[in-house]
Structure formats: structure tokens, C-alpha cells
Amino acid sequence: MKISNILRESLIIPSVNATEKLTALREISAFTGYTDQNINLSPEAIYNAVLNREKHGSTGVGNGVAIPHAKLAPLPELTACLGISHQGIPFDSIDKKPVNLIFMLLVPDNSGGTHLKALARVSRLLRNPSFRAELLTLRSAKSIYEAFLAQDTKI
């Protein structure tokens, strides 16, 4: 699976305004719900699904990365949204460090193993410390998207 199958430039937030976990999840959910007309879900439905999943354990995977995700029955296809926090957000991460990169994945309820492949691909790309650092220097959705595409060809 390639990152271009998961992420679109229009669903990148170069600078998240939130300073805490729940408001970050709400901001990214709202951005996704209002920006992606294909998903036909309200921002509140997205937020509630992601929050419900988060109650089972934090999706803060460490090294400044969180990959919140949720299954949503009416969703027609896998949808992703990336939000970047330049100040860092406390996220109950496994390493107890703030999160800068929040890569939200929304998958249809009947997605089978697609969501696992997407989680694995995102995790693999964001495992690279120099790539994570590069993302924090970029300020536009276009440059962030292009960096992801370039990194995707290397791995």
C-alpha cells in the first residue's frame, strides 16, 4: 500500500491549533468532516468514533506520533487526515512525550485487513526520525504531501 492511496493533500493540516488531546481530535475530526465531502459523515460522528476507540487505549505510539483511528459503518472508503502540532500535544503516548504528528485513519466497518495495512504503512513511514523532523519544518499542505510521497518511494 502506498501513502498516495491513503493521504490526500487536501486533508493535511499544516498547523493544528489545539494544545490538548481531545481538542486536537475534535479539530482534526471537524477538518475532515467539513473538507472531505465523500465521507458524508458529520464532524461529531467522526470525533465520537475516534474518541470511542481512544478509550480502549491511547493511539499515541511514541516518538511524537499518534495514529488515532476508527471504523465507521457508513464510510465508503479509507480516509486519512494528518495534523501537525508544532508545539506538541500531551497525548498519553506510550513514551509519555508530546505528540507533533497526528495521522488520523478512518476506515469502513467492512474494511478487512485494509486498515491494518494502512496503519502499518503510516507507522513505517513515521518511524524515520529524520523524516519526522523534516515534516516539522514544512509549513504548507503541498510541501508536507510531497515529502510523504518522496519518503514513500524510499521505503
Provide structural commentary.
This protein has 5 helices and 6 strands. The chain is α/β, with parallel strands linked by helices and 155 residues long. The chain has a single domain (3-154), classed as Mannitol-specific EII, Chain A. It starts with 11 loop residues before the first strand and ends with a helix.
Give a summary of the structure in a few sentences.
With 155 residues, the protein is α/β, with parallel strands linked by helices. It has 5 helices and 6 strands, in the order E-H-H-E-E-E-E-E-H-H-H. It has a single domain, classed as Mannitol-specific EII, Chain A, CATH 3.40.930.
Please give the structural blueprint:
Layout: E1 12-13, H1 21-35, H2 43-54, E2 60-62, E3 65-66, E4 69-72, E5 79-89, E6 99-108, H3 114-126, H4 129-137, H5 141-154
Parallel strand pairs: 1-5, 3-6, 4-6
Antiparallel strand pairs: 2-3, 5-6
Order of helices and strands: EHHEEEEEHHH
Q: What is the strand content?
A: 15-25%
The CATH H-level homologous superfamily: Mannitol-specific EII, Chain A
Total strands: 6
Structural class: alpha/beta
Structural shape: globular
Mean pLDDT: 95
The oligomeric state of the chains shown is single chain
Which spans of ≥5 residues are poorly predicted at pLDDT below 50? none
| Head-to-tail CA distance between termini | 11 Å
Radius of gyration: 14 Å
- Biggest sheet statistics: 6 strands, mixed
Q: What's the CATH first level?
A: Alpha Beta
CATH topology: Mannitol-specific EII, Chain A
Number of helical segments with 4 or more residues:
5
Percent of residues in helices comes to 40-55%
Tally of discrete structural domains = 1
User: So, CATH architecture?
Assistant: 3-Layer(aba) Sandwich
